[in-house]
Specification:
By secondary structure, this protein is an all-alpha fold. About 35% of the residues lie in helices and about 0% in strands. It contains three helices and no strands. The longest helix has 10 residues. The chain starts with 8 loop residues before the first helix and ends in a 5-residue tail after the last helix.
């Protein structure tokens, strides 16, 4: 599968140096692919991926629990 480089990627990588990020948008536009590709680089200090559609992740986030 070919991954399209997104212009926003550099902005997200820069933001992740100092804070948590949230990627939202319509279905099937590459949100998960982008998030997982950022984590695959291994440069983040505290890598975590939470999926809002996964009920245990959603409950934890709504209760203020972060990884």
């Amino acid at each position: 599968m070919k991954i399209i480089k997104r212009y926003i990627r550099s902005f997200i990588k820069n933001d992740l140096k100092t804070r948590m990020g949230f990627i939202g948008g319509p279905r099937q536009v590459g949100k998960t692919t982008l998030a997982l590709s950022l984590l695959a680089n291994g440069n983040e200090k505290h890598p975590a991926y939470l999926n809002w559609d996964f009920l245990p992740n959603r409950k934890s986030l709504l209760q203020g629990e972060l990884p």
